[in-house]
């Protein structure tokens, strides 16, 4: 019973933070990330936030190109070319 309660409490805490997450995140490198859309597709935070909610540890160009682009290739969905994510023209 204690284990079930602990699991439910952890799930509640983890899922509650998803609702506090921004719908869209704009990065300085002209990338607009539709956070809400990705949550709808994956159904969980842990796909990207493997160490917990909040900023992704180690996030940067290499991480994004490996994980984001890698997921898009694997799922055969989403942009995989530079201009698919990076919008240099205003």
Strand percent estimate: under 5%
Order of helices and strands: HEEHHH
CATH superfamily annotation: Cytochrome C3
Q: How much helical structure, as a percent, in the residues?
A: 40-55%
**What is the residue-mean pLDDT, rounded to a whole number?**
84
GO molecular function, one term: metal ion binding
InterPro entries: Cyt_c_III (IPR002322), Multihaem_cyt_sf (IPR036280)
Binding site for heme c 2: 85-86
Binding site for heme c 1: 68, 71-72, 82
Overview of the structural elements:
With 90 residues, the chain is mainly α. It is 51% helix and 4% strand. The chain has a single domain, classed as Cytochrome C3, CATH 3.90.10. It has helices at residues 2-20, 35-42, 61-75, 82-85; strands at 25-26, 32-33. A hairpin with a 5-residue loop joins strand 1 (25-26) and strand 2. It is elongated and about 55 Å long. The N and C termini lie far apart (56 Å).
């Amino acid at each position: 019973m204690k284990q079930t309660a602990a699991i439910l409490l952890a799930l509640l805490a983890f899922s509650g933070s998803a609702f506090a997450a921004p719908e869209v995140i704009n990065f300085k490198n002209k990338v607009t990330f539709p956070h809400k859309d990705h949550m709808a597709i994956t159904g969980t935070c842990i796909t990207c936030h493997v160490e917990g909610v909040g900023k992704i540890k180690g996030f940067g160009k290499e991480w994004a190109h490996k994980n984001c682009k890698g997921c898009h290739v694997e799922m055969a969905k989403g942009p995989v070319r530079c201009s698919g994510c990076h919008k240099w023209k205003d």
